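Postdoc handover notes: sequence design on the structure in folder B. Input C-alpha cells:
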C-alpha cells in the first residue's frame, strides 16, 4: 500500500494513472491548453487558480481565525524532490502538523508543500490579485482527517490548501534558507534529498493571517474540484538570488538536454458562479504552540483583542473602499 505522501503526490503531481496516453506540463503539446486530454475535469466550472478581485470579494465575519497545530515543531523525516513539475517538500515521519477552524469545518493534516515560479519577477504565481502576478507562490497541501489520505481526493471537502504569495526584496529571507540551500541538490527530475537542518512550517508563513477564501480545484491534472482555498492577503519576501535557485532547476533528468523548470503556473480560470470571501479576523506568530493532542486551544495563533480589532478594521477598510 502506498504511504499517504506517495498516494497524494501521485494524485497531485504524478498523475500517471490519468495520463496513460498523455503527459502533462506547462509548455507546448503538454501545456494547460491540452490538459483536458489528461482529465476531463480540467474544463469544469470550479477550477483554480483564479484572479482575486478585491472590489468584488465579500467580507465574511464567520470565517474567523485559522488554528495552526504543530506548526512550531521541527518537521520529522522531511525530504524535498524535483518531480519534473516543481520542488516538493514532503514529510514522512512523526505527527503531521494540521489546521482547523477558519471555516474549514474539520481538521486537515499537512501532507506536502510545493512552489510555482516564473522566469522573471513579473510572473510565477498561480493566483493573481487585481490582475497582478507575483514571482513565486507556495502551496501547503492538507487533507481532511475524516478521510483516508488516499480517499480525500474523492470528496468535495477532501483538501485544504494554503496559498502564500511572495514579493521580491533586496535581502535574502533567512526563513527559507533551509529550503533554498537544497535546490542545487535537486536540480534534475527525480532527484531527492533529506533535510539535515531544522525546519518549522510557522517560519514560512506571513506574520499575520487575513485571508481570501474560495472553493476550487487542484491546479494540476486531474484538476479535481475538492479544494478549499485559503490565499493569504499578506505576502512573504524573497530575494532575486533565492528566486534564481528555483529557476536553475530542470524539467528532465541528469545527462539529458533538459529545459529549465520555469513558468510552472496554470493560467487563470473563470470564477463563474463562485465568490471570493475575505476573512475579517487573523492571527500572528505571538504565541508558541504544541502538539494537536494538547487540547482545544493548542496551536492557535492569536492576537490581543485590541490588535485583532485593528486588523479587522484595517482589512475591512482596505477591501471595501477600493
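Designed sequence:
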Amino acid at each position: 500500500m502506498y504511504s499517504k505522501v506517495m498516494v497524494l503526490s501521485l494524485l497531485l503531481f504524478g498523475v500517471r494513472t490519468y495520463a496513460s496516453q498523455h503527459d502533462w506540463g506547462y509548455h507546448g503539446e503538454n501545456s494547460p491548453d491540452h490538459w483536458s486530454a489528461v482529465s476531463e475535469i480540467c474544463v469544469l466550472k470550479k477550477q483554480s487558480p483564479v484572479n482575486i478581485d478585491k472590489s468584488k470579494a465579500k467580507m465574511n465575519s464567520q470565517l474567523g481565525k485559522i488554528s495552526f497545530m504543530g506548526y512550531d515543531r521541527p518537521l520529522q523525516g522531511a525530504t524535498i524532490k524535483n518531480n519534473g513539475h516543481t520542488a516538493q517538500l514532503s514529510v514522512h515521519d512523526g505527527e503531521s502538523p494540521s489546521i482547523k477552524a477558519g471555516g474549514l469545518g474539520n481538521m486537515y493534516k499537512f501532507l506536502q508543500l510545493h512552489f510555482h515560479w516564473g522566469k522573471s519577477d513579473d510572473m510565477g504565481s498561480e493566483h493573481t490579485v487585481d490582475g497582478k502576478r507575483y514571482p513565486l507562490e507556495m502551496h501547503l497541501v492538507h487533507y481532511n482527517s475524516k478521510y483516508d489520505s488516499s480517499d480525500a481526493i474523492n470528496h468535495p471537502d477532501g483538501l485544504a490548501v494554503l496559498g502564500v504569495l511572495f514579493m521580491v526584496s533586496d535581502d535574502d529571507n533567512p526563513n527559507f534558507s533551509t529550503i533554498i540551500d537544497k535546490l542545487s541538490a535537486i536540480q534534475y527530475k527525480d532527484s531527492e534529498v533529506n533535510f539535515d537542518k531544522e525546519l518549522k512550517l510557522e517560519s514560512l508563513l506571513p506574520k499575520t493571517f487575513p485571508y481570501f477564501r474560495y472553493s476550487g480545484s487542484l491546479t494540476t491534472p486531474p484538476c479535481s474540484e475538492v479544494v478549499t482555498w485559503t490565499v493569504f492577503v499578506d505576502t512573504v519576501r524573497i530575494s532575486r538570488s533565492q528566486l534564481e535557485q528555483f529557476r536553475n532547476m530542470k524539467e528532465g533528468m541528469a545527462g539529458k538536454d533538459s529545459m529549465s523548470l520555469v513558468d510552472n503556473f496554470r493560467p487563470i480560470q473563470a470564477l463563474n458562479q463562485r465568490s471570493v470571501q475575505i476573512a475579517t479576523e487573523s492571527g500572528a506568530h505571538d504565541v508558541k504552540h504544541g502538539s494537536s493532542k494538547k487540547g482545544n486551544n493548542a496551536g492557535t495563533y492569536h492576537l490581543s483583542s485590541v490588535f485583532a480589532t485593528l486588523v479587522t478594521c484595517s482589512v475591512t477598510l482596505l477591501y471595501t473602499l477600493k
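Context for whoever picks this up: The first strand starts at residue 51 and ends at 52. Don't rerun without checking with the PI first.
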